[in-house]
Amino acid sequence: VEGDIGDVFYLIEEGKVDVYVSKVPDTCVHTYNSGDSFGELAIMYNAPRAATCRANGTVKLWALDRVSFKVIVVAAAMQKREQFVGFLKGVPILESLTEMELMTMADSMAEEKYNSGDVICNQGDAGNYFYIVHEGTAICRQKDADGNDKDVATLNSGNYFGEIALLTEKPRQATVVAEGALKVLALDKATFTRVMGPM
């Protein structure tokens, strides 16, 4: 119920759960379906429930208490940090960063997965993220004077791209495409500027 203290996180196995907020009474503002989850914000931030959730028909839920949720989330965050920091230490451009700066980067980075042929960013687009290739290969392509695509670089694990658009406010200088299965670590502009700026 909206306003209650939240101490349980829910995962829907079967059924639907409708969401209501007091600002628009008697109006369903969202519906959660099988595989969706809710209730984590109240637990993570010790805030009251932001909405009232009501079962729409028969619903089967899994419930996780506050302590268990926090233990699992913290353990997962620490595992992710250790994995990413270990990888980032091997990236040449990051050699001058302190341990704390590397940990800040690791906590802020999100791993993104792409299939062969997927486009990570397009030439001419605005840039809001900096990327480091985690696993796999990416191809950088630029349009020549005739408008034809030309491969200009191949990026492998530890190589990075996207920094020019963040440092200079220029649009993306190339289109980057996955060649085979690709994993990249993405860092948002605000964190990039704060951590990488001094470099």
Give a quick precis of the structure.
The chain is of the alpha+beta class. It has helices at residues 40-45, 66-88, 99-108, 163-168, 189-196; strands at residues 8-20, 28-32, 37-38, 52-65, 110-114, 119-121, 129-143, 149-155, 160-161, 175-188.
Q: How would you characterize this protein structure?
A:
The protein is an alpha+beta fold and 199 residues long. 27% of the residues lie in helices and 40% in strands. Strands 5, 6, 7, 8, 9 and 10 form a six-stranded antiparallel β-sheet that branches. Strand 7 and strand 8 form a beta hairpin. The protein is elongated and about 60 Å long.
Task: Describe the secondary structure blueprint for this structure.
Blueprint: E1 8-20, E2 28-32, E3 37-38, H1 40-45, E4 52-65, H2 66-88, H3 99-108, E5 110-114, E6 119-121, E7 129-143, E8 149-155, E9 160-161, H4 163-168, E10 175-188, H5 189-196
Antiparallel strand pairs: 1-2, 1-3, 1-4, 5-10, 6-10, 7-8, 7-9, 7-10
What is the total tally of β strands?
10
Give the overall shape, derived from the CA principal axes. elongated
**What proportion strand?**
35-45%
Mean pLDDT: 89
What composes the largest sheet? 6 strands, antiparallel
> Helix-strand pattern, N to C?
EEEHEHHEEEEEHEH
Low-confidence stretches: none
Q: Specify Rg, calculated over alpha carbons.
A: 22 Å
Oligomerization status of the protein chains: single chain
Structural class: alpha+beta
Query: How helix-rich are the residues, as a percent range?
Result: 25-40%
Distance between the termini: 48 Å
